[in-house]
Design goal:
The complex is a heterodimer of chains A (220) and B (161).
Chain A lengths: L4 H6 L13 H12 L10 E6 L2 H24 L2 H5 L6 H12 L12 E8 L7 H18 L3 E5 L6 H10 L9 E10 L14 H4 L12
Antiparallel strand pairs in A: 1-2, 2-4, 3-4
Chain B lengths: L2 H20 L12 H5 L8 H14 L5 E7 L4 E7 L4 H9 L8 H14 L3 E10 L4 E9 L16
Antiparallel strand pairs in B: 1-2, 2-4, 3-4
The chains are: A alpha+beta (220), B alpha+beta (161).
């Protein structure tokens, strides 16, 4: 059995892609990885919609921009975004990053991705863990894509609000009833056109691991 | 326990539960909570003022709040609502005591819904919900986007009351 820790540790969210297509055999491996995600009582509620059509991707990119931008504009106006990015020392760079965020452009990249995979789950077959199963499915997609040299990004924001999720469903002709399908996110995929130079720092284990009971930091 | 208290208690339980399941993004899921009341009222109007005034008339006539005022600022993006003695205020008070900042305002949802339904607003977002237990006043800040190009029109909302 291979240790996949290095695959896990080197994966990053990639939002810029080359226009080169993803060959079908590579795409199939990613879809196969999704199929093998853990799932409560083996319900396998996931349904995956693979999107390559540029018009559809544009609609999704526009919706993503709208969803993120509508929230981030408000957060900026309330001063919350400025606090989140105060570690950026250069005021010009900080202003540009903030504008990129509150304009919604940060979430527009679906338009450039060669492939988008919408991850949805059926709510009609009795599964009791749909959001958790779908999240595990997405993680499998991300790790397999990274191990094959692709870049990917898990995008939840554009389907986060109830109305936006309904718009997303309409774009992809997913039944819109609240008891039918849950749209949890989509994954944008492509050959990376960026190398993330500064992986965001991760909390040390000492800060997040307790032993035997909540709050106990001494290793048992 | 009267009906209003009973309904507020149920809302508290559901709001707590949803926050526990979804954390901060629970607030993004609840924009339709409360809209059935206003959708039953056949709100009319061709402008923000007409639609919001009509909503307020129905909301106060329905006994949901005692009084209500509003203003629009922040380059047309900020809708500020002030309400007095909202029927849901006990919900906000109990949630705060339980350690969760309230994030569902059915009254604001009603007005935002009608801006979308009657004036085809592109999208809206309930950004901030404050309340004062002693005065019985709620202040709600909402972002309203008439068209997609309104996204990104920023200003300092702390300077607007």
């Amino acid at each position: 059995m291979d240790d996949i820790l290095e695959v896990i540790k080197t994966r990053k969210s990639i939002r810029r892609y080359k226009s080169d297509p993803i060959p079908d055999d590579i795409l199939d491996k990613i879809l196969e990885a999704a199929r093998w995600a853990p799932t409560g009582e083996n319900y396998q509620p996931w349904r995956l919609i693979v999107i390559k059509n540029p018009e559809t991707k544009k609609k999704i990119g526009d919706l993503a921009k709208l969803g993120s931008g509508s929230r981030m504009t408000a957060w900026y106006c309330l001063g919350e975004m400025q606090r989140r990015f105060e570690e950026i020392q250069d005021p010009v760079k900080r202003a540009e990053v903030l504008r990129f965020m509150y304009s919604g452009e940060v979430s527009e990249f679906a338009k450039q991705a060669p492939v988008i995979i919408a991850v949805i789950g059926t709510l009609m077959e009795g599964s009791v863990d749909v959001p958790y199963d779908l999240s595990a499915c997405i993680e499998n997609i991300l790790l397999e894509a990274h191990s094959l040299g692709l870049g990917a990004c898990w995008v939840h924001g554009p389907v986060a609000s109830t109305r936006d999720a309904a718009k997303f469903k309409k774009i992809l002709k997913i039944p819109t009833g609240m008891g039918e399908y849950k749209v949890i996110a989509y994954v944008a995929l492509g050959w990376p056109a960026e190398a993330r130079k500064h992986p965001r720092p991760k909390k040390p284990l000492e800060e997040m691991v307790y032993w035997e009971e909540f709050g106990r930091k001494e290793r048992a | 326990m009267d009906n209003v208290e009973h309904f507020n208690n149920m809302l508290v339980r559901l709001e707590e539960l949803l926050y526990h399941e979804l954390s901060g993004c629970a607030a993004w899921k609840v924009e339709l909570v409360g809209v059935d009341f206003i959708q039953s009222k056949k709100i009319e109007g061709n402008t923000e003022k007409e639609v919001i005034d009509h909503c307020i008339k129905e909301i106060t006539a329905g006994g949901l709040v005692k009084s209500m005022t509003y203003s629009i600022g922040g380059k047309g993006v900020l809708l500020s609502l002030k309400m007095k003695d909202c029927v849901h205020l006990p919900k906000e008070i109990r949630l705060k005591k339980d350690g969760i900042h309230p994030y569902i305002c059915p009254i604001a949802n009603m007005i935002l819904d009608q801006l979308i339904e009657k004036l085809n607003y592109e999208t809206t977002y309930l950004a901030k919900l404050d309340f004062n237990e002693k005065t019985g006043e709620c202040k709600v800040k909402c972002a309203i986007y008439q068209t997609p190009d309104k996204i990104g029109l920023v200003s300092d909302w702390s300077k607007e009351e």
